[in-house]
């Protein structure tokens, strides 16, 4: 004869529990996905867009952290330009209408000059800029 005063050993789930479990699983998955994206983004070099037109780089002053890895995304407007950072040993030709990517890494604190090293007309000697590391 069964004892009717004995509490139930197995509780039946309420109708809200499966929905709560799905919500917790979805939230956990979203947090994990965001964490993975953040880790990948933290390791990726920063992209710096630099546009060249006769006698001017825009921007012509760039701030970097010490030892920061970057990718310069270079474009030219009117003629083939050169983008050179002699102190870092990197350079590229930049034809009009193209996007040229150039990787570089800053060193210690200080300033680094960049310049156009392809003659582009009178005023070419003023086509330069500075990277401030600090």
From TrEMBL:
Listed under catalytic activity are:
N2 + 2 Fe(III)-[cytochrome c] + H2O = nitrous oxide + 2 Fe(II)-[cytochrome c] + 2 H(+)
Record-level GO cellular component terms: membrane; periplasmic space
Chief location of this protein within or outside the cell:
periplasm
- Entries under Pfam families matching the protein: Cupredoxin_1
Q: Where in the cell is it found?
A: Periplasm
**SUPFAM superfamilies documented for this protein:** Cupredoxins
UniProt keyword annotations, A-Z: Copper, Metal-binding
Q: Quote the pathway field.
A: Nitrogen metabolism; nitrate reduction (denitrification); dinitrogen from nitrate: step 4/4
Enzyme Commission numbers on file: 1.7.2.4
Quote the InterPro entries the UniProt record gives: CcO_II-like_C, Cupredoxin, EfeO_Cupredoxin, NosZ/Cyto_c_oxidase_sub2, TAT_signal
Molecular function terms from GO: copper ion binding; cytochrome-c oxidase activity; nitrous-oxide reductase activity
Any one of the GO BP annotations: denitrification pathway
Cofactor(s) in the UniProt record: Ca(2+)
- EC category: oxidoreductase
Domain (Cytochrome oxidase subunit II copper A binding): residue spans on this chain: 34-134
Protein task: Nitrous-oxide reductase is part of a bacterial respiratory system which is activated under anaerobic conditions in the presence of nitrate or nitrous oxide.
The record's note on quaternary structure and interaction partners says: Homodimer.
Q: Which family does it belong to?
A: In the C-terminal section; belongs to the cytochrome c oxidase subunit 2 family. Belongs to the NosZ family.
Q: What is this protein called?
A: Nitrous-oxide reductase
């Amino acid at each position: 004869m069964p004892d009717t005063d004995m509490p139930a050993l197995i509780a039946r789930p309420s109708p809200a529990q499966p929905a709560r479990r799905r919500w917790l699983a979805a939230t956990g998955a979203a947090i994990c996905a965001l964490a993975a994206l953040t880790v990948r983004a933290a390791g990726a070099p920063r992209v710096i867009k630099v546009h060249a037109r006769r006698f001017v780089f825009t921007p012509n002053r760039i701030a970097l952290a010490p030892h920061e890895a970057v990718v310069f995304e270079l474009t030219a407007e009117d003629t083939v330009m050169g983008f050179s950072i002699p102190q870092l040993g990197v350079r590229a030709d930049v034809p009009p209408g193209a996007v040229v990517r150039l990787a570089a890494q800053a060193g210690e604190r200080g300033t680094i000059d960049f310049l156009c090293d392809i003659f582009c007309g009178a005023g070419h000697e003023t086509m330069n800029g500075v990277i401030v590391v600090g």
